[in-house]
Amino acid sequence: QPQLVESGGGLVQPGGSLRLSCDASGFRLDYYAIGWFRQAPGKEREGVACISSGGGSTTYADSVKGRFTMSRDNAKLTAYLQMNSLKPEDTANYYCAARYGTSCRYWSGYDYWGQGTLVTVSS
C-alpha cells in the first residue's frame, strides 16, 4: 500500500524557517520524482518544488525560488523541503507527491499523495 506522510508543519513568524519531511513506504522511492504542493484556504493547489528521482535536479515555482530548497535521501525513504525567509503568503497546507519517472518538468501526473501538513506564517 503506497503511502506518503508529511511532517514538520507548524506556526512560524515571517522571516523564519521550517523544514518539512515526506516519508515514503510501500513503493520504491528512488523510482519516482517527488514534488511538494501547497493549497491555501479558498485557493487552488499549486506546485512548489520538485526533485528528480535520483536527486540530481530540482525545479521551483517562481514564488519560492531562492527561499526554498528541496532534497531527498532515498536510503532513508524521505524527501525534504527546507523553507527559509517565510512570508505570510506561504501559509498553506503542504502536500508531497510521487510521480513515476525521472524528471519534474510538469506539475501533473503524480501517482501518490500525502495527507498534508499545515504551515502557518504569522506574527
Task: Please describe the structure with a list of short key phrases separated by commas or semicolons.
0% helix; seven-stranded mixed sheet; 123 residues; 11 strands; single chain; mainly beta
Task: Give structural notes.
The model has no long low-confidence stretch (mean pLDDT 96). It is globular, with a radius of gyration of 13 Å. With 123 residues, it is an all-beta fold. 0% of the residues lie in helices and 50% in strands. The chain is built from no helices and eleven strands.
Compute the separation of the termini in Å: 40 Å
Main sheet attributes: strand count, strand direction, barrel closure: 7 strands, mixed
User: What is the total tally of β strands?
Assistant: 11
Helix/strand/pairing category: mainly beta
Give the low-confidence spans.
Answer: none
What general outline do the C-alpha atoms trace? globular
Order of helices and strands: EEEEEEEEEEE
Q: Could you tell me the mean pLDDT? A: 96
SSE order and pairing:
Layout: E1 3-7, E2 10-12, E3 18-25, E4 32-39, E5 46-51, E6 58-60, E7 68-73, E8 78-83, E9 92-100, E10 112-113, E11 117-121
Parallel strand pairs: 2-11
Antiparallel strand pairs: 1-3, 3-8, 4-5, 4-9, 5-6, 7-8, 9-10, 9-11
Q: What's a quick, concise take on this entry?
A:
It is built from no helices and eleven strands.
